[in-house]
Amino acid sequence: MLRKTRIILAAVFYVLITLLFLDFTGTLHAWLGWTAKIQFLPALLALNVLVVVALVVLTLVFGRIYCSIICPLGVMQDIIAWLGRRGHRNRYGFSPERKRLRYALLALMVVTLVAGLVPLAALIAPYSSYGRIAANLMQPVYIGVNNLLAMAAEHVGSYAFYERDVWVRSWATFGVAAVSFVIIAVMAWRGGRTYCNTVCPVGTLLGILSRFSWLKIRLDTNKCTGCRLCERNCKSACIDIKNRKVDYSRCVVCGDCLDKCRFGGLTYTSRRPAKTADAPSRKGDRAEVDTSKRAFLFGVVTAAATAAIAEDKVKFDGGLAKIEDKVSPERQTRLTPPGSMSARHMAQHCTACQLCVAECPNDVLRPSTSPGTFMQPVMSYERGYCRPECTRCSEVCPTGAIKPITRAEKSAIHTGHAVWIRKNCVPVTDGQPCGNCARHCPTGAITMVPLYPEAQKDGGKDEEKSRLMIPVVNEEMCIGCGACENLCPSRPFPAIYVEGHEVHRKG
Prior knowledge:
Elements: H1 2-22, H2 29-32, H3 34-37, H4 40-45, H5 49-62, H6 65-70, H7 72-85, H8 99-114, H9 118-122, H10 126-155, H11 171-191, H12 194-198, H13 201-210, E1 216-219, H14 229-232, E2 239-240, E3 245-246, H15 256-260, E4 266-269, H16 282-309, H17 343-349, H18 355-359, E5 365-367, E6 377-379, H19 392-396, H20 407-411, E7 413-420, H21 426-429, H22 436-440, E8 446-450, H23 453-457, H24 463-466, E9 469-473, H25 483-487, E10 496-506
């Protein structure tokens, strides 16, 4: 019963958080956003004391059930291990704990977090690793299936689905996600929870706490026959039958061993097994386990509830320039999303989980390739612009790197300012009138002025010159939304682009 309960709860959590990363419509984050906020590292960086305390208490009572139920990377390892175990029963065995490696990686994570080098910690953080896998490897497949359904529905006159572009936002991040998945998958296929119990720093930290947990998988030496079925089915490699010990720092309370023991030698209980030969009856054992199971289920549900409480495609004006792919301009200061407050705040709190990138409906956010902010989100306007009415990234961020903001607040946040490049502007290069930037500026920060003022003075006799206008930017009114940069017809480099602000200001 313990194993079945754990599997059901793990499946529910896994499906919910995966859907959160796959969804591109923006409809699920209002219902499922809490699944990201109860993850350990995001809650820690967001200073969500309620969630952190709830997870610590959960571990001290029930053991490392966070790793086997709530953590999506842990559940993914279980799925892969299950696939690898099919047809190969009793494939595992006990292996000693690799203490030096485990605690070295935990110390590395603590040092990087204290030093503000969050991107380095995010490389091995379980939630961030799974987020990158889901956003970069799973979501394109999900969108591809959606596009096929959209095509099929369109043929029968239905518009229940709509097509969405499938593209790689960052090949570097895609490569990191692919390599991470391969390493984790191989380790899970061959050794079950090897990654979880060797590399993962969150697992190591919770493992330290689980040594003192109230409920544990306990080995009764009076009933154990030494058959080793439990040891050979433990994907955490933490049951040592030879010495009659269980390594609680690596046990994730999956319950697989309980189902394999035919003699009642293993129980999930708060009581130490009696050392005398006068063992309790089988009926008593069953009652004891059932009580623990009810406590287990109640605790998981309570902890989860507590933590939870705590478009139209842009079209360019044609006929003004050759249509080719845009190239992102070189910005002196990177653009961070509204609500991030500053580039420094973003760098210190973002775990690079890619949730905001996956959820951005305008394709503005993409992972950074800079070493100091690697894989953290930055704004770029080749495929869209940051619409003033959209606040989705601030709504889904679980770490507080992007603070929740309202639509009214976003319209007043200045993330950057537009800069005009004369040599790229269509009226200058082609002698053709344009004005796209001014027409589409939502704040009216761009004003068109004559390119040839002298042509205006002579009464407009030179009609060709008198109708050519160029933009002038009022930096005090510009909020850095990027509408001008995105809709500029100049290719490959826009004639107007947005330079970021190191610290956002409100105007």
